[in-house]
């Protein structure tokens, strides 16, 4: 049987591993002479070093936060932009929109295609105080997940310390950081609830959504037989439905874990959300449009999705 | 081909290539390239520079050159001698005070240097001639320093612990703390043996001590202050919220350079260049092995060897302690031939899944592994510390140094056994300071 | 290794080519050491900005990483010249001088071949990043061809030094593996922690 290699950075209990596994299992069950071998926990490539081999056909598939490749295709930075996505259902509508078509056209330039769309959300945690609106960030040392968030938080008067999500726990414990922003699942898996006083999970309003699709090398896909391609697409459809449901559950689950640990839970109001978005327009959106050819059109496309 | 068989083939070829005398890093690249070409196709060669660069693309690696600079800048001053002399004046009433103060100085110096040869050289330059002058047996004089020097990689900071932390993605702050009590335990064992063997040699004269006046005892103290300042400064930066462990190393390097220049008058650009040259040489060598081992572990993973070995061990119905004993024997043998960094980098991706599957704590295992590597540093054929001692005291025969070191190897084996019986010796401190592991 | 007396350096025996290569490798070594010093300085500056000034530190981490990578790759030829790349020389020591000579030519050729491979594909990777205008995915957004340049340059210089080392042995200026006919256990090249 032909073998495809799929690499990702997460443990095998993570939802993104399960998404990959559904596709692999469905393809195996279809019995079309195709097998997907999954390399989890960065055991093949490091997290940020997967896109290049994918685009050069040295890696067949990956589950990847697309913004990691934002230095290669600046348009991808829109897939981790504050306030662009309001909630998970809105994210699902974005996946079907002309905006996503434009992003997929950029991927095609690099010989990359999407099998499974999916967004995951995240929130904020404060060591001593709650973080809901921009005024809460002023003067704090913080770590942000993604370039656009760094720009926005710096605009709110925060100081940015760059580090990986695995370093948040220690940095909070020793007091290097006052606040952090990352995904719901990272907040739980790195046990940040042991170090913070207040958590602002993704709720009715959430600022932080990251597009993390299952990608495939396009030429590799095109070289497969029609039956094999169909089996992949069928598996992907099933995985996508699962991904959306699980993404919603993760936010609620993280809220529960923090609550049980005795951490105060704060809510982001509509007024907070609008204040953040107004700030983002002056900072991250502006920077994006300046550095991306055709950036304004792409941004308008994304903002036009209801 | 069956991945396990393939794994055996990789092992055989790696041994053959490394024993040809090629440099370790290039040898790992050669083996990786060979297997990738045969089993993954020519195109996988394209990936090698990319993976090599990617392995170095890690902020934590900064701490390697930094801790090496710390060690070599202080080793090139008389700080080690001061430390040693102060301990000697204060411990003089203790029977065998001289060898005790030498080992104590090794332990303290280790707390600042991340490297074993630096510790060995700094204390040995002063300690070995002094011990021999006072009539200690050559074997004890050389062996105690060779063994005491190995503490450099166990008592934090430690370059090998950093490399382990990077290879296995475990917390470096936690690893450092785990080395403290096992390090002190080893110091205790070393001291016990040194006293016993000196007493047994029948040379009671060395045990009867010279006495120092209180004045002599007090006037030496200020000379130890810069030393304590560095250790406290680094600890405060690391655990007091100023910097992450990797950043702390830079503070330490700067502190050591400044102290070496200001207090120990290391002004001469030529002397400074020697410190920098030696640090660069050692750092580049280690970092290149790290990068090449990254390509090697990509090859193991890509050919599914790592995963298959872990799965295979999982199916074996053996007692975890039998497994641990086998792992230790393997590490010992590897340590006889290869520098610690290379062993850790080559073995960690294979051993870690085995260790965790069998229910052992990776932090505890880091300590056991490090002690294994310490044994390698004072045993033939390439025990680095033996050659450092040989350089310092050329008139002591290598055979005498080696024979003198062997009892200390036994102390290390006892330490490993004690750690197996009481894992808390390693895990208690990190858990107490940083909370239970994630 | 740190703090120990004596250091082995590749011999040039007055040969012009060998002296030129030695000079290039030494220059690369100075640059490498300078980069390590710069990394110390930048890290300390970062801690100062963050801890004392409570300011943003956006570019420092990345700059330090690239400096350490470049220091490693550019340092390769110099460390080769100082015989600092650790090896297992048990077999070379045991072999008779003739066999040792043959083994040396073989391992050196193998070394040059693998370094040549890394140079070729390293150049290709650098060129790829340059042609496509890749940047890092951070606020700083470094043009990646700049740090990637260390790959082809470092490996090219290492290859040059390796070729020089091979030539030095072929011209009998240097002994294979640095071992003369009477070498025993204590003349081995060692290094490491
Ligand atoms: Na140490
Ligand atoms: Na050894």
TrEMBL record, chain B:
Localization per record: Cell inner membrane
Start and end residues of each TRAP C4-dicarboxylate transport system permease DctM subunit domain: 12-425
Keyword Transmembrane: yes
InterPro entries: DctM, TRAP_DctM
Pfam families, sorted: DctM (PF06808)
Superkingdom of origin organism: Bacteria
Membrane-spanning parts: 6-39, 59-79, 99-123, 175-199, 220-242, 248-267, 287-313, 325-351, 363-387, 407-429
Membrane topology: Multi-pass membrane protein
Primary localisation category: membrane
Protein keywords: Cell inner membrane, Cell membrane, Membrane, Transmembrane, Transmembrane helix, Transport
GO molecular function terms noted in the UniProt entry: transmembrane transporter activity
One Gene Ontology term, aspect cellular component: plasma membrane
Quaternary structure annotation from Swiss-Prot or TrEMBL: The complex comprises the extracytoplasmic solute receptor protein and the two transmembrane proteins.
Family of the protein in this entry: Belongs to the TRAP transporter large permease family.
Functional note: Part of the tripartite ATP-independent periplasmic (TRAP) transport system.
Name used for this protein in its record: TRAP transporter large permease protein
Lineage: Bacteria, Pseudomonadati, Pseudomonadota, Alphaproteobacteria, Rhodobacterales
UniProtKB/TrEMBL annotation, chain C:
Location in or out of the cell: Cell inner membrane
Name this protein carries in UniProt: TRAP transporter small permease protein
GO cellular component annotations of the record: plasma membrane
Membrane topology listed for this record: Multi-pass membrane protein
UniProt keyword terms in alphabetical order: Cell inner membrane, Cell membrane, Membrane, Transmembrane, Transmembrane helix, Transport
Transmembrane spans: 20-51, 63-80, 101-123, 145-171
Predominant subcellular localization, coarse grouping: membrane
Stored PANTHER family: 2,3-DIKETO-L-GULONATE TRAP TRANSPORTER SMALL PERMEASE PROTEIN YIAM, TRAP TRANSPORTER SMALL PERMEASE PROTEIN
Domain (Tripartite ATP-independent periplasmic transporters DctQ component) ranges: 40-170
Source domain of life: Bacteria
One Pfam family per UniProt: DctQ
Subunit description: The complex comprises the extracytoplasmic solute receptor protein and the two transmembrane proteins.
GO MF, one example: transmembrane transporter activity
Protein family: Belongs to the TRAP transporter small permease family.
GO biological process, one term: C4-dicarboxylate transport
Job of this protein: Part of the tripartite ATP-independent periplasmic (TRAP) transport system.
């Amino acid at each position: 049987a032909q073998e495809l290699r799929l690499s990702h950075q997460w443990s095998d209990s993570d939802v993104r591993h399960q998404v990959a596994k559904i596709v692999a299992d469905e393809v195996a069950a279809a019995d079309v002479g195709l097998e997907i071998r999954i390399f989890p926990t960065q055991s093949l490539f490091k997290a940020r070093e997967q896109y290049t081999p994918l685009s050069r056909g040295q890696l067949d598939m990956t589950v990847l936060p697309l913004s990691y490749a934002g230095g290669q295709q600046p348009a991808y930075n829109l897939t981790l932009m504050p306030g662009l996505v309001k909630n998970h259902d809105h994210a699902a509508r974005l996946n079907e929109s002309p905006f996503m078509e434009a992003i997929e056209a950029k991927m095609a330039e690099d010989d990359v295609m999407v099998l499974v769309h999916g967004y995951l959300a995240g929130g904020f945690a404060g060591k001593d105080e709650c973080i809901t609106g921009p005024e809460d960030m002023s003067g704090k040392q913080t770590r942000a997940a993604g370039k656009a968030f760094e720009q926005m938080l710096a605009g709110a008067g925060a100081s940015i310390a760059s580090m990986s999500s695995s370093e948040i726990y220690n940095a909070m414990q020793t007091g290097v950081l006052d606040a952090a922003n990352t995904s719901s699942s990272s907040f739980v898996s790195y046990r940040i609830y042991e170090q913070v006083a207040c958590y602002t999970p993704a709720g009715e309003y959430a600022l932080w959504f990251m597009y993390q699709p299952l990608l495939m090398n396009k030429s590799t896909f095109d070289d497969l037989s029609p039956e094999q391609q169909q089996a992949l697409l069928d598996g992907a459809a099933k995985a996508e439905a699962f991904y959306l449901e699980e993404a919603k559950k993760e936010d609620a689950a993280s809220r529960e874990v923090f609550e049980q640990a005795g951490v105060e839970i704060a809510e982001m109001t509509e007024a907070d959300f609008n204040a953040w978005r107004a700030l983002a327009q002056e900072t991250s959106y502006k920077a994006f449009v300046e550095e991306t050819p055709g950036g304004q059109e792409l941004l308008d496309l994304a903002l036009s999705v209801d | 081909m069956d991945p396990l068989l393939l794994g055996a083939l990789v092992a055989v070829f790696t041994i053959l290539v490394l024993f040809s005398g090629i440099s370790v890093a290039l040898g790992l690249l050669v083996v990786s390239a060979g297997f990738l070409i045969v089993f993954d196709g020519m195109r996988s060669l394209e990936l090698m520079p990319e993976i090599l660069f990617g392995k170095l693309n890690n902020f934590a690696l900064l701490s390697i050159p930094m801790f090496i600079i710390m060690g070599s800048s202080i080793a090139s001053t008389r700080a080690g001698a001061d430390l040693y002399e102060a301990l000697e004046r204060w411990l003089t009433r203790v029977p065998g005070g001289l060898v005790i103060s030498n080992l104590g100085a090794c332990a303290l110096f280790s707390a600042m240097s991340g490297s074993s040869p630096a510790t060995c050289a700094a204390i040995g330059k002063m300690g070995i001639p002094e011990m021999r002058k006072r009539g200690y047996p050559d074997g004890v004089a050389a062996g105690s320093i060779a063994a005491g020097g190995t503490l450099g990689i166990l008592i934090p900071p430690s370059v090998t612990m950093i490399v382990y932390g990077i290879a296995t993605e475990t917390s470096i702050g936690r690893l450092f703390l785990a080395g403290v009590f096992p390090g002190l335990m080893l110091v205790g064992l070393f001291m016990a043996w040194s006293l016993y063997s000196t007493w047994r040699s029948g040379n009671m004269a060395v045990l009867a001590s010279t006495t120092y006046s209180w004045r002599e005892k007090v006037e030496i103290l200020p000379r130890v202050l810069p030393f304590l300042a560095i250790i406290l400064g680094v600890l405060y930066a690391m655990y007091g919220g100023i910097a992450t462990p990797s950043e702390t190393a830079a503070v330490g390097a700067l502190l050591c350079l400044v102290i070496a220049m200001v207090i120990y008058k290391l002004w001469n650009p030529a002397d400074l260049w020697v410190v920098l040259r030696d640090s660069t040489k050692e750092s580049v060598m280690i970092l290149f092995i790290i990068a090449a081992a990254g390509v090697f572990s990509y090859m193991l993973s890509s050919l599914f060897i790592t995963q298959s070995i872990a799965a295979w061990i999982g199916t074996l119905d053996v007692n975890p302690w039998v497994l641990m004993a086998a792992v230790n024997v393997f590490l010992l043998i590897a340590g006889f031939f290869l520098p610690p960094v290379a062993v850790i980098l080559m073995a960690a991706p294979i051993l870690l899944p085995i260790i965790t599957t069998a229910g052992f704590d990776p932090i505890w295992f880091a300590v056991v592994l490090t002690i294994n590597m310490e044994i390698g540093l004072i045993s033939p054929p390439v025990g680095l510390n033996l050659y450092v001692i040989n350089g310092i005291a050329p008139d002591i025969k290598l055979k005498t140094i080696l024979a003198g070191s062997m009892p200390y190897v036994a102390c290390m084996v006892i330490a490993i056994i004690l750690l197996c019986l009481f894992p808390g010796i390693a895990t208690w401190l990190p858990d107490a300071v940083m909370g239970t592991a994630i | 290794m740190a703090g120990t007396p004596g250091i082995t350096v590749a011999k040039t025996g007055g040969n012009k080519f060998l002296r030129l290569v030695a000079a290039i490798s030494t220059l690369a070594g100075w640059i490498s050491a300078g980069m390590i010093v710069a990394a110390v300085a930048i890290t300390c500056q970062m801690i100062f900005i963050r801890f004392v000034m409570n300011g943003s530190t956006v570019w420092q981490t990345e700059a330090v990483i690239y400096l350490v990578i470049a220091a490693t790759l550019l340092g390769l030829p110099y460390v080769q010249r100082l015989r600092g790349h650790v090896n297992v020389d048990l077999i070379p020591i045991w072999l008779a001088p003739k066999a040792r000579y043959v083994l040396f030519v073989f391992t050196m050729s193998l070394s040059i071949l693998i370094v040549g491979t890394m140079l070729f594909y390293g150049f290709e990777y650098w060129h790829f990043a340059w042609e496509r205008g890749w940047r890092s995915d951070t606020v700083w957004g470094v043009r990646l061809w700049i740090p990637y340049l260390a790959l082809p340059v470092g490996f090219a210089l290492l290859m040059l030094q390796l070729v020089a080392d091979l030539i030095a042995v072929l011209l009998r200026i240097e002994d294979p593996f640095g071992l003369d006919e009477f070498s025993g256990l204590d003349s081995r090249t060692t290094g490491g922690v």
